[in-house]
């Protein structure tokens, strides 16, 4: 496979690193043949530093390693997409992604929901379960137990149904958000990562793809 990669004149190929769960682009780095081979061999990302002229293992000093889930090349085989499970942040500035500074936002984009909020919501709920801050609604749910959480999921499901039946778009939006939140709390209580739910959806999608 490595012999088919179209490295540039410097012997490098750009590697786009993407979170396999959230699909957020984490960073853009470069690989040469050796770092690409070590990435495949170890199952963690290795790159070539253009400034230091040496290989580097992501997370070797910080501990923020990236476990490789899947690697793909583009149609010209001169760029690689590496989907990973990150163990910590990708950016040396402490940010989750190196692409954290917005330089332009179009009018349409401002109205598009950020689906990565589900991943962030899952992280916040996990933190609330662990810390149990006094007065927090999430703390109240966890301390009340699974029956209370199930009751809230049922109530919010009913509210979604009523809003949809009434063709109340605004109410449906808010009630759907409430349902998703309480469902995420339930998944945490059941120790079921949201990624496993997404994997089921992805598996169903793959199974329905036409065979060429």
Task: Offer a concise description of the structure.
Helix content is 42%, strand content 17%. It has 212 residues and is of the alpha+beta class. The strands form two sheets. The protein has a four-stranded mixed β-sheet, covered by helices on one side.
Question: How would you describe this protein?
Answer:
This protein is α+β, with helices and mostly antiparallel strands and 212 residues long. The protein is built from six helices and six strands; from the N terminus they run ββαββββααααα. It has a four-stranded mixed beta sheet with strand order 2-1-6-5, with helices on one face. Strands 3-4 form a two-stranded antiparallel sheet. A hairpin with a 6-residue loop joins β5 and β6 (80-86). α4 runs antiparallel to α5. The longest helix is centred in the last third of the chain and has 21 residues, at 169-189. The radius of gyration is 21 Å and the shape is elongated. The mean pLDDT is 91.
């Amino acid at each position: 496979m490595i012999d088919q990669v179209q490295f540039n004149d410097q012997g490098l190929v750009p590697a786009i690193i993407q979170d396999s769960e959230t699909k957020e682009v984490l960073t853009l780095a470069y690989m040469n043949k050796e770092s690409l081979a070590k990435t495949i061999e170890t199952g963690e990302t290795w790159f070539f530093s253009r400034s230091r002229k040496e290989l580097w293992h992501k997370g070797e000093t910080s501990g923020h390693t990236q476990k490789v889930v899947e690697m793909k090349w583009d149609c010209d085989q001169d760029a690689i997409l590496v989907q990973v499970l990150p163990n910590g942040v990708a950016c040396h500035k402490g940010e989750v992604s190196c692409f954290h500074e917005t330089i332009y936002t179009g009018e349409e984009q401002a109205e598009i929901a950020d689906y990565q909020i589900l991943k962030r919501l899952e992280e916040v709920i996990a933190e609330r379960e662990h810390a149990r801050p006094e007065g927090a609604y999430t703390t109240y749910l966890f301390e009340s137990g699974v029956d209370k959480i199930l009751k809230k999921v049922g109530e919010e499901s009913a509210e979604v149904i009523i809003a949809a039946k009434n063709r109340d778009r605004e109410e449906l939006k808010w009630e759907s958000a409430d349902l998703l939140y309480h469902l995420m709390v339930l998944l945490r209580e059941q120790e079921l990562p949201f990624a496993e739910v997404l994997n089921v959806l992805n598996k169903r999608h793959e199974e329905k793809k036409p065979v060429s």
